[in-house]
Design goal:
Oligomer: single chain
Helix content: 55-70%
Strand order of the largest sheet: 2-3-1-4-7
Length: 266
C-alpha cells in the first residue's frame, strides 16, 4: 500500500472515531494501528539510482547499503530470481531475453511492484528500475520516492568501462579487467564458473546502446526533476562521485532510521 493510501485510510479512521458519540474500542484500536503505521513509514526512506550501463550504479548502491543500512534492490537480481523460480513473469521475461530483446514495461512492472509491496517496512535503494517513463509512472502510483540519484558519466568513459566489463551470468557479479579484475582471468571469484562479455558491451554495439539509454531515460529524468527529487552527479570516477552522494544522503535520510533499520538489514 502506498504512503498516500495509508495516510488517507488512517485519516478516515480518525475522523470516524471522533465523530461517533460512543466510539467502540475496536475503532480506536484500528485507528491507533494506522497512526503507528504512519509513524513507522515517516521514518522510512525510498530512493532510486539511475544511470547508463557502466555508470557504476551497482557500486554506488552497495556503498549506500553498507553505509546507511538501506536495502539494495536490484532489478537484475529480481529478474534472475524469477527466471530461476519459473514464475509466470519470469518465464515471460526469459522469452524476451533469449531473443535479445528488452523486457517490456508491463512485464517489468509485474516483476517489480509485487516485490516492492513486500518492502513496506523497509528503507531501500532501487537499482535498474524504472528505465522508462511508463515504469516510472507505475512506480509513482505504488510508492512515494524521497530521492532520485542520476549518474551522468561521459560517453568515452562508459565505452572504456564496458569494453573491459565481464559478467558472471548466474549471479550478475560484474568485473572490470582494469579496475576490479577476478583473481583468476575469466573465472568468477565465488563460483569458479566462467565469465562472459555481453554482446551489447562489445564496441560495435556500445554506441547504439548508450544512445538508446539516453533517449529512453530523458523523460524519466525530466519527471523526477519536475518533482524536485532529482540529484545529478557527474565525473569519470566512481570514487570521486561517492563522497557527494554520501553527503547528500546524510542530509536526506531520517536520523531515526539508524539502529532499527540496520538490525533488519544485517
Amino acid at each position: 500500500m502506498s504512503w498516500e493510501a495509508l495516510k488517507n485510510r488512517a485519516f478516515r479512521f480518525l475522523v470516524h472515531s471522533f465523530a461517533e458519540k460512543k466510539v467502540s474500542p475496536t475503532i480506536y484500536s484500528r485507528a491507533a494501528h494506522q497512526v503507528q503505521c504512519l509513524k513507522e513509514m515517516s521514518k522510512l526512506f525510498r530512493a532510486v539510482i539511475l544511470g547508463p550501463p557502466g555508470s557504476g550504479k551497482g557500486t554506488i548502491s552497495e556503498r549506500v547499503a553498507n553505509s546507511f543500512g538501506l536495502k539494495h534492490l536490484s532489478s537484475g537480481d529480481f529478474l534472475r530470481e524469477n527466471i530461476a523460480a519459473k514464475t509466470e513473469a519470469g518465464v515471460l521475461a526469459k522469452t524476451y531475453i533469449e531473443k535479445g530483446a528488452l523486457v517490456p514495461d508491463h512485464v517489468m512492472t509485474r516483476l517489480m511492484l509485487p516485490r516492492l509491496e513486500e518492502m513496506t517496512r523497509h528503507s531501500w535503494l532501487l537499482d535498474g528500475f524504472p528505465r522508462t517513463l511508463a515504469q516510472a509512472e507505475a512506480l509513482n502510483s505504488a510508492c512515494e520516492l524521497d530521492v532520485v540519484i542520476s549518474l551522468n558519466i561521459p560517453l568515452e568513459t562508459l565505452k572504456e568501462r564496458l569494453r573491459h566489463r565481464w559478467i558472471h551470468p548466474a549471479s550478475g557479479r560484474v568485473y572490470n579487467m582494469r579496475f576490479n579484475p577476478p583473481r583468476v582471468q575469466g573465472v568468477d571469484d565465488i563460483s569458479g564458473e566462467p565469465l562472459i562479455q555481453h554482446e551489447d558491451d562489445r564496441p560495435e554495439a556500445l554506441v547504439a546502446r548508450l544512445r538508446h539509454y539516453k533517449d529512453v531515460a530523458k523523460p524519466v529524468i525530466d519527471l523526477y526533476r519536475a518533482k524536485g527529487i532529482l540529484h545529478m552527479f557527474s565525473d569519470t570516477e566512481t570514487d570521486r562521485i561517492w563522497p557527494y552522494v554520501s553527503s547528500l544522503l546524510s542530509t536526506k535520510i531520517p536520523t531515526d532510521l539508524g539502529d532499527a533499520q540496520r538490525v533488519r538489514t544485517h
